[in-house]
Amino acid sequence: MLDDHKEKFAKTTPSYSQQVGESESRKIRALRNQVPSVWAGLGMMGLVGWSVTIPTLLCAALGIWLDHHYPAKHNWTLALIVAGLAIGCLNAWHWVANEVLAMRDGRKNTDD
Length: 112
What we know:
It is a single chain. The chain is mainly alpha-helical. It has four helices and no strands. It has two domains: about 1-35; about 35-110, no CATH class.
């Protein structure tokens, strides 16, 4: 009776190499079909936001300094905030365009 049970168990359980093969195929499928997580999306939004914010703040600081040291009829702060915002938006657009191309090609773009 014990021998019958061993034979039945041996027939129903796959061999070790089959188990490893199935495990590896599941891992490969999971790597191919990765869905970006919520955290990855939030991280990308943060990166795009900072790429716009930093040039805008730097230009605003320069504008305040220029208005304080070189008063003029024009408001340097407002003009440089608009310029910094434009530079930041172009920077973010360039970065996002490169990421979209990298996703389409299925590779990570590391040259920019």
